Amino acid sequence: MAIRLSLIAALSGEHLLLIGPPGTAKSLVAQRLRLAFAESTYLERLLTRFTVPEELFGPLSIKGLEEDRYERLMESYLPTASIAFLDEIFKANSAILNALLTLLNEREFDNGANRVQTPLVAVVGASNELPEDGELAALFDRFLLRLNVGPVTKGAFPALLGLRGESTPEIADDIKLTSQDLARVQATAEQVEVPDDVVALLCDLRDWCTAEEIPVSDRRWRKIVKLLQVSALTHGRTTVSVWDCWLLQHCLWDAPEGREKLCDWYAARVGASAAMDPSRLTRIVVSWEGTLKKDKESRSQRRDEEGRLLYKDGSGEPTANPTGAVQLYRDQLPLFLAPDIAHTCDRHNQYTKITDRSRNDKGYTRAELGVLWLKFGYRWGDLKSWSQRDTYLADPNNWHTKDTDFPPLMEPTRHKSFYIE
């Protein structure tokens, strides 16, 4: 299991964390992973709270210091390693933590004033215990895959006693992976489809993690999707399957006992314990849920009692007429026609009757009507003081209008009982 997880972590550009007591072959996992890659460079370090950056990243260059350059001699240290094993990684102190985080995530290292690209493929981290210091939470999050490693099982114990000496498997050079192979796997994996049933499963799992108070960052979810794509690709498929999601139990726990809960959730969600492949059933359920949502949001044009289609007129009222007059606006102000008895008045108090009620199709606002004049008996008065002004303005016949198409009056679709059943 540990070897499989370390290999898919490397193919995905991720790292593996092994949690377990001493003597459970955690370092052997990294040593075996190294054999899968051609021309790989390997680094193994035990970290303590007294570990200094020079032990991990290389000593300072004396020649560089003489030339006022703060640079390290990185050869044979972590910035030049492709596979690394870091034991007791959570004992890393703040002096090396920031540089280690950047190297793990971006594969870059700040050497003096220059940021250099590193050949790092994967790091296998190991620890006897989980981090308790909140400062190490970011380091813990850098390991997408996590595995609790214990002693060999009772059934395998006799085989352990039968082992003699140290042996290293021989791997033919023609099947070892190159940097070009890694780049091709990761580029091709981006084209692998993530179907709706897998997306639905991940959405359900996110809700479950929230309910269980398991914090999972958005960055981690994106990395998980990439991991599933690589899993599908390396199994010869072009679409992620719900069975690839078996890996999720190794990505989301914060404590080893949480892995079993994740495994139980996964088995119940996809029916992994059943003889049938549930992926088709999951797709059907997702499809019907989409159909139900579409039906609920469906809208149809309303009809009157005689079956005629209804539209929404200018005042928002239902009408069977598809076209009609609507009041025009200028600067969000309603426009009106001038009264047929209205006059204008110039500065010489000369009154002129208005002959074009629409004012050359521009219309009048309320304020513009207020400066027009009406004759009351033998005297003149402005329209603002007209007692019938509000009645005049409320009459649609006095609005400045334009014929237009009315929008259809929509309502929720009324499905037939047979269809609903």
Spell out the blueprint of helices and strands.
Blueprint: H1 2-12, E1 16-19, H2 26-34, E2 42-46, H3 53-57, H4 62-66, E3 83-87, H5 94-106, E4 108-111, E5 114-117, E6 122-127, H6 137-141, E7 145-148, H7 157-161, H8 179-189, H9 196-211, H10 218-234, H11 257-270, H12 279-297, E8 299-301, E9 311-312, E10 318-319, E11 323-327, E12 329-330, E13 333-334, E14 343-345, E15 351-353, H13 366-369, E16 373-376, E17 379-382, H14 389-394, E18 401-405, E19 410-412, H15 417-420
Parallel strand pairs: 1-6, 1-7, 2-3, 3-6
Antiparallel strand pairs: 4-5, 8-19, 9-10, 11-18, 12-13, 14-15, 16-17
Helix pairs in contact: 1-2, 1-10, 8-10
Rounded to an integer in angstroms, the radius of gyration calculated over CA atoms is: 38 Å
Number of strands: 19
Gap from first CA to last CA: 49 Å
Which range does the strand content fall in? 15-25%
The main pleated sheet reads as:
5 strands, parallel
Structural class: alpha/beta
| Spatial ordering of strands, largest sheet | 2-3-6-1-7
Low-confidence stretches: none
Average pLDDT over all residues: 87
Task: Explain the overall architecture.
By secondary structure, this protein is α/β, with parallel strands linked by helices. The protein is 34% helix and 17% strand. The chain contains 15 helices and 19 strands. It has helices spanning 2-12, 26-34, 53-57, 62-66, 94-106, 137-141, 157-161, 179-189, 196-211, 218-234, 257-270, 279-297, 366-369, 389-394, 417-420; strands at residues 16-19, 42-46, 83-87, 108-111, 114-117, 122-127, 145-148, 299-301, 311-312, 318-319, 323-327, 329-330, 333-334, 343-345, 351-353, 373-376, 379-382, 401-405, 410-412. The strands form eight sheets. The chain has a five-stranded parallel β-sheet with strand order 2-3-6-1-7. The protein has a two-stranded antiparallel sheet with strand order 4-5. A hairpin with a 2-residue loop joins strand 12 (329-330) and strand 13. The mean pLDDT is 87.
